[in-house]
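Troubleshooting: if your tokenizer reports a length mismatch, compare your output against this known-good record of 716 residues.
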Amino acid sequence: MADTGTALGAPAERREGRDKVTGSARYAAEQTDPGRVHAWPVIAGIARGTVRTVDAGAALALPGVLAVLTHENAPRLAPADDPTLFVLQDPRVPHHGWFVALVVGETLEAARAGAAAVRVEYDVEEHDITLTDDHPGAYTPEDANGGFPARREQGDPESAFAASEIRVDAHYRVPPLHNHPMEPHAATARWDDGRLVVHDSSQGATTVRATLASLFALSEDDVTVISEHVGGGFGSKGTPRPHVVLAVMAARETGRPVTVALPRRFLPAIVGHRAPTLHRLRLGATADGTLTSSLHEVTTHTSRVKEFVEQAAVPSRIMYAAPHRLSSHRVVALDVPSPSWMRAPGEAPGMYVLESAMDELAVAAGLDPVELRITNEPDTEPDSGKPFSSRHLVECLREGARRFDWAARDPRPRSRSEGPLLVGTGVASATYPVMASPAQAEAHARPDGGFVVRINATDIGTGARTVLAQVAADALGVPLDRVHAEVGNSDLPSAPLAGGSSGTASWGWAVHEACTRLASTLAEHPGPLPDAGLRTHADTAGTADADSPYSRHAFGAHFAEVTVDTVTGEVRVRRLLGVYAAGRILNARTARSQFIGAMTMGLGMALTEGSTLDAASGDFVESDLASYHVPVHADVPDIEAHWIDEDDPHLNPMGSKGIGEIGIVGTAAAIGNAVHHATGVRHRELPLTPDRVLAEAADGAAGQGAAGSTGTAGPW
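Known-good structure output:
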């Protein structure tokens, strides 16, 4: 059926959905270039040292093995702005999992067998991979990620805290977390008469092109990077990764197209991880719950290769009014893989801690957790003093409480049980900044009445093609089925990466502007269009990145109901509800999918996902999906996402806010708070696995007293 409306905001189906489910959508590792071969990396088995020798003889003797690249014979790279990409250039080993060789074979099996046959000897040095609050190497960086000042202080927070009637002083720990997209990182590279063509699983082909041109001393005009279909990224594909550099190296060395597809067990050490964060959060308040002081101090780790500081204390600068405030970051450089972006960097761990502490404050003050948050609603952004462009957190909390039937909740811990199961509910707020970057777009009116918009956006499974076509149809005033969107190729007009919940805002701004100009051009054009049609171009540099007098954020409220098995310690989530204020929703179907997907990821953060570094080897112990447990459908039996209508004229032409990340931000805290309500035991370290729940319940049982006891079995 033809679509007769512009459909901006409507639940339009993803245009590439059929291609994906039928297998006709080709991903980076599925290219079929004539003569294509495969490459398999060899990773370092030590945590720190240098490569003494690489013996490739046995590998080269295997049938089908074409080449073995090492630091001694790999193509030389120009100096890299990102040192994690400076692979096979010298013998140093900065962490376990660093690439020390690359084997190229006629088949994937030959390359893998060759890699297993390579023998590497090392000069091993002592290493340190253990993060502690009092590590002697901890320092205050100049900035945390995103250019946020590492430390902010207002008033006299220490004195105000000491004088507060009610105080919460708690330590929290969030472990290393890993991106595990459905499609592991992969690239296929080929050289055509000096021109480089790369298919890469990336969240931003424009940046990959610029990086490869710099590393291999090429003009950007001689590089094409295609990221037409990408099977998820969650931040780990937001910047170029070493696999694409290796693929280009091998293609140059062999003169053949080469595919490098990283096995999943390599991902934790190679493509970034959410760094562990150690938090101390202190909240001081008056008897009625009004905050007087907030102190959020974070210690995290980075690698010795590249500084990356998880900005986990930054959300505390935004959320609640308190006249005396401190937020600070310290970082320790260790012999660990380089941390990097992961969905809602900073906000996900920082808001878990802040919203857990707010729940602790509500319990200490004898106040309803929803009402406590509303009591501390600020009039302006607490850190900068800027007015909010829009802030409807209170409405989200009220609407969520209504939908969740919060009023029927008995606030006493352990007040509800079903046999051996304790039942509890919890709430948490969420926030995520509104961001946009300059982009370019082209709009084309064809003589046949169709329209094409072209922009190097990346669809990482979010439905970007569809939403951008909706933005174009709305600006042109034509039915959606007359608009086609071309994305995912660096030869298209330049655009920023899909990250920071800024993709649609950035790309849509340029598409809207190009289509608005095209509509004006068409209105002034008499008669039929020329054979080539009409084209317009837009570049939002200077507007999308202009300073705003407003503090621009999306907000939300999360509610959770859990059961805790007093015999096994297993926590199960029965219900998750998210209510969001995220500007104008551009596609109801894809938006709901984004919210629910992020909430599910937040559930994993709360209950199943967590990683540990082995002190002896320096390697992540949980390096595959058999040991690093991500949630599945059965883990979320009832999950709902809703939003309120929000008209914010201070954002972009569409009035939209990013929605890809806010869904994860408050979920873990809501679940953790629900577990406390169920059991009366406060857990301050994630994930809440059965062994941890049982152990902490046993440790805390004596101090909890018998109030509210249900008489169930187990350590409670």
